[in-house]
Amino acid sequence: MNYEEKEMQERFGKVNSFRVPEGYFDQLTERVMAQLPEREQQAEKISLSDRRPKSRLATLRPWLYAAACTVAVVVMGLTFHSHDAAEEQPLASTSITNTESQYIDDAADYAMLDNAEIYACLVEN
Amino acid sequence: MTKQDEQLLMQQLSDPSKQRKAFEQVVREYGEQLYWQIRRLVLIHEDADDVLQNVFIKAWSHLDDFHQESRLSTWLYRIAVNESLDFLRKQKNSSMIHTDDVESGVANMLVADNYFDGDETDALLQEAISQLPEVQRTVFTLRYYDEMKYSEMSQILKTSEGSLKASYHIAVKKISDFFKHRD
User: Fold this and answer.
1) What does pTM read for this prediction?
2) Contact status, residue B83 vs residue B51, Cβ threshold 8 Å
3) What is the value of ipTM here, to two decimals?
4) For residue range A35-81, what is the model confidence (pLDDT) as tens digits?
5) What residue numbers bound the domain in which B32 lies?
6) Which of B164, B144, B107 is nearest to A6 (CA)?
7) CATH number, domain at B65?
8) Do B122 and A42 lie within an 8 Å CB cutoff?
9) Which of A27, B32, B156, B163 has the smallest C-beta neighbourhood within 10 Å, fewest atoms?
10) Which residues of B touch A24 (CB under 8 A)?
11) Contact call for A37 and B121, based on CB within 8 A
12) Closest-approach residue (CA) in chain B for A18
């Protein structure tokens, strides 16, 4: 203990000059315990046991989402398909024409006819 | 409380079915000690009561964080010191007490307080303590009034013993200077 500390103790002592209201410490434990919240574990327990049954809408919600997604995919698919079909129409007819002329050429080759014989055949008929 | 009693209490605190009852025992055992530690820092009874309630609510809410690497009393003291210093910081920020104004300062406030029965010199000592930086203020009250060992204080404040001794001696010097200027 240095000089200043010794002097301080001689001058002030260590007397507690603070006071509390009468009966404060007697009621302290009760007051503190009354203010303590429930622990989280207990709160979770209560919420689990008290869990309410799901509403009908909540039960159907996943199915509603799935149905909405399916409808969206079908609508989008139909939209794109009709658009593509409209654009592909001339190509399809060209393709048929090409197929028909290819068929006549193939038949002529198979019958070993040349163009002159075909024309003669047509004139006779 | 013996070490065995404390170990039993801590076992009960970790058991959800017994912890509320065990915590009640903690409040009964440490409530008064913690109150006085808080009161010496915040000075006013109503403030000390509020801080003490917060200390126990915090301890109760963070019971799972107490891993028993320190004593239960050390853990509670640490919460009490932190809560008290937080309170003082908030109070300082809201400028409720102008500690640099001696005329309307801490001493006058204490003399007028129903729950302070010291004389003017006692009130001035509290004013001198209240003007210390927070670490010196805490170290001084723990050492001077509670006569706490530096080793225990070191665990509460998580500061080296050497640093705490230095803080205490600086605090004593400043309080001594405070009175020299007034005499």
Assistant:
1) 0.69
2) yes
3) 0.85
4) 998 876 544 443 333 444 455 666 677 787 888 878 888 888 887 77
5) 1-96
6) B144
7) 1.10.1740.10
8) no
9) A27
10) 49
11) no
12) B116
